[in-house]
Design a protein that fits this description.
62% of the residues lie in helices and 8% in strands. By secondary structure, the chain is α/β, with parallel strands linked by helices. Strands 2-3-4-1-5 form a 5-stranded parallel sheet, with helices on both faces. Strand 2, helix 3 and strand 3 form a beta-alpha-beta unit.
Length: 381
């Protein structure tokens, strides 16, 4: 009996150690993934002209993040077009021969100089090439034996083409800063740190509202945080602050239109549609956004009616759509669709699809058809 108890104790201790090992391993892996993704922006924020290596590459397929990274990079190294210790070349407009002459010459006004090749698409997967084969070979030779007093910076939006010999040399010898698209959790973590640095404090759940409002887009989150910082001088940021400080997106306006329809406020709907048309929004685009919202509402309503939890709905929709669905969007869709019946959503979707078809086949004037569809949807509330 004692032996049996000792055996059970040993098994339990082994299980605990195994569980602890798994948890620690997962946390380390998660931290590694975050650091690997975020290393570009965080490294740039620590750079200076003095700390620049001989070769630096800045690229990225996430255009919003790349634009911010580029702006921050130039600021960190103190770039000034009038400063003769910097040489800037837009490779989409400059011949390589001209840029090469500056690259290989010794600095005149200081011990070191910085040479920037901007829009250098030759290192990306873009189907553009500003250098011919001979020029590329000359640049490759330079990379293998760069001038010690020159700091070369290559910049281009887009994904680095790892198959090119040029890129292989750069990845081997240069500081490579590549802004890859961030996962939702990584985006959230990064901007939570930024908000803390900026002294922005959010009420519970409000930071998630900011991310949803910004469509989890890097540049939009950054822009909207700037709006909030200017709007809220002191105190916590609330849902009301989000609504008042951040300009409404098309999705926000479509949501407001839906609420007006449900309340039977047809005049309010007409005024909103009129304003959107004045802003240049096309009726077909308005229909597409409405369809997207109503389909999401219908999907979550149907899955919720099957007894699925919020997390299960996220998994089911991710499998169905073939892409990772944002959990926060599902949470808000469940909340916003609560007053809507499944029958109403089905009828509305059918009406919008028919209207879209009639507009594209030229049955009647598109503004008339869209206004008619809104009246039909309003009458089914």
């Amino acid at each position: 009996m004692v032996l049996q108890q000792d055996f059970v104790t040993q098994v339990n201790q082994t299980d605990k150690l195994l569980l602890i090992t798994i948890v620690v391993g997962f946390l380390l892996w998660q931290n590694f993934c975050y650091n690997k993704t975020m290393i570009a922006m965080e490294t740039i924020e620590k750079l200076s002209k003095e700390s620049l290596p001989t070769l630096t590459v800045l690229a990225g397929e996430d255009l919003g993040q790349y634009s911010q990274a580029k702006e921050t990079f130039l600021k960190q190294i103190g770039f000034d077009p009038s400063d003769l210790t910097y040489s800037y070349f837009d490779m989409s407009e400059t011949t390589y021969q001209e840029a090469e002459l500056d690259l290989e010459s010794m600095p005149f006004f200081a011990d070191e100089k910085v040479v920037i090749f901007d829009h250098f698409a030759d290192m990306t997967t873009a189907k553009k090439s500003y250098l011919d084969d001979k020029e590329l070979k000359r640049l490759e030779r330079y990379l293998q034996s760069p001038v010690e007093t020159t700091r070369l910076v290559l910049m281009a939006s887009g994904k680095l083409d790892g198959k090119r010999r040029l890129v292989k040399l750069l990845k081997r010898d240069a500081l490579v800063l590549e802004t890859s698209p961030l996962k939702d959790a990584e985006l959230k973590t990064y901007f939570q740190k930024k908000a803390h640095q900026e002294g922005l404090i959010f009420d519970t759940g409000v930071f998630e509202e900011l991310l949803i409002k910004s469509n989890f887009d890097f540049s939009d989150v950054q822009k909207n945080m700037a709006f909030l910082k200017g709007y809220k001088v002191e105190g916590n940021i609330s849902s009301k602050d989000i609504a008042e400080a951040i300009p409404k997106s098309l999705q926000d306006n479509i949501f407001d239109m839906t609420q007006l329809l449900l309340r039977g406020d047809i005049n309010g709907v007409r005024e909103l549609v009129h304003d959107l048309r004045l802003q240049g929004e096309d009726d077909i685009k308005l229909i597409a956004v409405m369809l997207g919202q109503f389909r999401t509402y219908l999907q979550v309503k149907l899955l919720s009616a099957q007894g699925k939890s919020e997390q299960q709905i996220v998994v089911s929709l991710s499998d169905y759509l073939g892409r990772k669905v944002n959990p926060y969007q599902i949470r808000y869709a469940l909340r916003d669709s609560r007053p809507l019946s499944i029958e109403f959503l089905k009828t509305s979707i059918k009406s919008l699809i028919e209207t879209d078809y009639q507009i594209k086949t030229g049955t009647y004037d598109k503004e008339y058809l869209f206004d008619l569809a809104l009246l039909k949807i309003g009458s089914h509330r």
